Amino acid sequence: MQQATAAIRVLAPEALQDLISALAATRVVLGPVRRDGAIVYDEISRLDDLPAGWTDRQEAGQYRLEPRTDAALFGYAVGPHSWKQFLLPPREVLFTTRQTADGLDFLPPPAEERTYAFIGVRACELAAIAVQDKVLRDGPYADTAYAARRENAFIVAVNCGTAAPTCFCASMNTGPKAAAGYDIALTELLDGRHEFLAEAGSEAGEALLAALPSRPASAGDLAAAEAVTVNTAAAQTRALNTENLPAQLAAAANHPHWQEVAQRCLSCGNCTMVCPTCFCTTVADHTDLTTADAQRVRSWDSCFTLDFSYLHGGSVRQSTAARYRQWLTHKLSTWVEQFGTMGCVGCGRCITWCPTGIDLVAEATALREAQNGNS
Amino acid sequence: MSMPAPITERGAFVPTPYRVIAARRELGDTVTLNIAPQAGALPAILPGQFNMLYVPGVGEAAISLSGATEAAFIHTIRDVGAISHALTRLPPGASLGLRGPFGTAWPVAETQGRDVLIVAGGLGLAPLRPAIRHLLAHRERYGKLSLLIGARTPPDILYPHEIAQWRANLDLYVAVTMDRADAMWHGHVGVVPLLLPRADFDPANTAALICGPEVMMRATAQALLGMAVPAERIHLSLERNMKCAIGLCGHCQFGAAFICKDGPVMRYDRIAPALAVREL
User: Fold this and answer.
1) Helix pair B160-167, B125-137: axis angle to 10 deg
2) Taking 60 as the threshold, does the pLDDT of residue A186 lie above it?
3) Structural domain count of chain B
């Protein structure tokens, strides 16, 4: 189950400063920071930037930070940000065009020069990145800028030591232990000590790990790390039964339950903004005052807006019920047909950040049970 | 059937510069543009595919190809919004951007040996025109051909001169119907499906190519099923909001399909369940 034990080391918390510094020599290092009452992802340079000793309390429609009784660096579940904002930026110039004597000249944006290191990527987030890879990189047409950012990113995963009540990754088989897609994976050990078990997942990760002050992992360290994610999985109180769910949701298109959800849904789009797999974008075109130069800018969009489905004469999805149905059905049903995977990784963000506390797990379960009742 | 278009190495989001070489007003609100690349060769197209046409600073719209010459793409555009308005006002010599061609094609190769029924409603004749031209250019490969056209009123008939030329073919049945007649119209009045019984085709060996408003396509497909045309040989061209045309923006989803890459031409048997859901 484990890779070559030589690649598994135990680090003191201070060694993470060496990790950050080594990565910062060539990359923009991004990690969790405490800001505006939430744990968000931003540039970090020092170990002190991490939210040591903080945790979060999450429920449907609720998010609060609270102090912990220890100095854990990663003692919280996921917050409103995801790594999507760096790999698929919320706003991005697609091209600039200029009218010349010979006609139009199209200039692509300059190639991205920054390369990223992500510190603290959770298993569900690795799964979300893998889902976006399928959508944005592996189809007949690739978003080449996304693919380049993705290719160059160095990923330090963190296996979760705490589960929020909104977490359901264990039922989605996406966590809480990182399975693949990382350069280094850390497990924070807080069993009367404060250390990190570190596993390399790539050659680059192995090389970097070898340069950090560390000691070899003992069988006891490995068992302690395993217990962390086993306990986190066991602590999860939400679970989505995905068996046959795509077909059941597809068959439920005309079920009255969508109308019932629509009475609570504000169609605000928060769920799509915090979702780490939602990839929909729109474009806007601008000119300068001379109108000689124009620019096309892509930005995140949401299927909850009326504009999203606008076709000359009106929008296809006029009702909130139709828009909620589109979102939920896409996540849990049509996504499978399109990309061979669900569009949901069980991170629970859409539940926490819904202003009216609509619970994707509860709604999908209600529709499943309604379908079962029908058949 | 979906095939990646030849995308420039500058990325799938960056248009290629084109120029209007001819602009012709078809109807009060509808214009046909012939457009040619500023430099280089014209990409190959298949009947039924579309391009993304870009007006600097205004935006980009998905427009079906209504034909092509050796040197130019032909697009017939109705003024229904800000971008199509700007496109219909481009004079000869004006610059625009183009990405494409994109999307699936009318199955003109797969339908060889069969009777072919072409049903067009309004501007839906434009995306069907390359298929009609192909069928007539290879007339010997097909069985009986029928072209059924519906328009709102007589002045709204698209390509009246070309329809007259098509009518001159003795082995092509052409019928035209109006939603509302005027004093000068002495032909059929009523919706397009009412013309179906007048066309001569063997339902078991017929392929139908349909393009028009969605309600018209649904009604026509239903009528054809009632006449025992197999659902898998009924083909519709669908339209949805589209921003990227390459399956990345999410806007054109129709059930599990992306209209941009799984369509616009789709088999009825594959989309019938989705067509039956309101506001999908």
Assistant:
1) 30
2) yes
3) 2
Residues of A whose CB is below 8 A from B11? 108, 144-145
Q: Measure CB to CB from residue B4 to each of A108, A141, A279 and give the nearest one.
A: A141
| Disruptive mutation site among B80, B87, B241, B261 for chain A (greatest number of A CBs within 10 Å) | B241
Q: What distance, in Å, lies between the first and last C-alpha atoms of chain B?
A: 23
**Chain B: residue whose CA lies nearest to A303:** B251
Of the three residues B229, B257, B274, the one that is the final residue of a domain is: B229
Asked if residue B72 is part of any domain, the answer here is yes
Q: Which of B211, B214, B159, B160 is nearest to B49 (CA)?
A: B211
What is the distance of C-alpha B165 from the center of its chain? 19
- Contact across the interface for B247 and A316, Cβ inside 8 Å: no
Judged by CB atoms closer than 8 Å, whether chains meet at A298 and B13 is answered as yes
Confidence check: pLDDT of A4 > 70: no
**End-of-domain residue from the set B206, B229, B252:** B229
Per-residue pLDDT of chain B (280 residues; tens, 9 = 90+): 344 444 444 468 999 999 999 999 999 999 999 999 999 999 999 999 999 999 999 999 999 999 999 999 999 999 999 999 999 999 999 999 999 999 999 999 999 999 999 999 999 999 999 999 999 999 999 999 999 999 999 999 999 999 999 999 999 999 999 999 999 999 999 999 999 999 999 999 999 999 999 999 999 999 999 999 999 999 999 999 999 999 999 999 999 999 999 999 999 999 999 999 999 9
Q: What single string gives the DSSP state of each residue in A108-157?
A: PPPPP---EEEEEE-HHHHHHHHHHIIIIISSSS--HHHHHHHHH-EEEE
Does the distance separating the beta carbons of B248 and A279 come in below 8 Å? Answer: yes
What CATH number did the domain enclosing B191 receive?
A: 3.40.50.80
User: What amino acid is encoded at A187 in this protein?
Assistant: T
Q: Same domain, yes or no, for B48 and B71?
A: yes
Query: Given an 8 Å threshold on Cβ–Cβ distance, is A309 in contact with B240?
Result: yes
Same domain flag for B221 and B125:
yes
Chain B contact probe: residue of A135, A136, A285, A300 with most B CBs at under 10 A: A285
Whether the pLDDT of residue A69 is over 90: the answer is yes
Q: What residue has token string 């602009």?
A: B23
What rounded mean pLDDT belongs to chain A? 95
Nearest to B97 among A97, A298, A330 (CB): A97
Q: Are B119 and B225 members of one domain?
A: yes
Would you call A322 and B280 a contact, using CB atoms and an 8 Å cutoff?
Answer: yes
Q: Which range of residues forms the domain containing residue B52?
A: 16-102
Same domain, B129 and B202: yes
* Per-residue pLDDT at A3 exceeds 70: no
Answer yes or no: do B96 and B119 share one domain.
no
Contact list, B15 vs chain A (CB under 8 Å): 95, 97, 106
CA distance linking residue A186 with residue A158, whole number of Å:
5
Q: Say which of A301, A310, A318 has its CB closest to residue B279.
A: A318
Instruction: Answer for the pair A292, A98: CB distance below 8 angstroms, yes or no.
Output: yes
Query: A–B: how many Cβ contacts below 8 A?
Result: 135
| CATH number of the domain to which B24 belongs | 2.40.30.10
pLDDT for A312 = 87
Spatial separation of the C-alpha atoms in residues A25 and A43, rounded to whole Å: 13
pLDDT tens digits, A145-163: 999 999 999 999 999 999 9
Q: Indicate whether B237 belongs to any domain.
A: no
Task: With respect to residue B267, please indicate whether it lies within any of the assigned structural domains.
Answer: no
ipTM over 0.85: yes
Tell me whether residue B107 is in a domain: no
Q: What is the pTM of this model?
A: 0.95
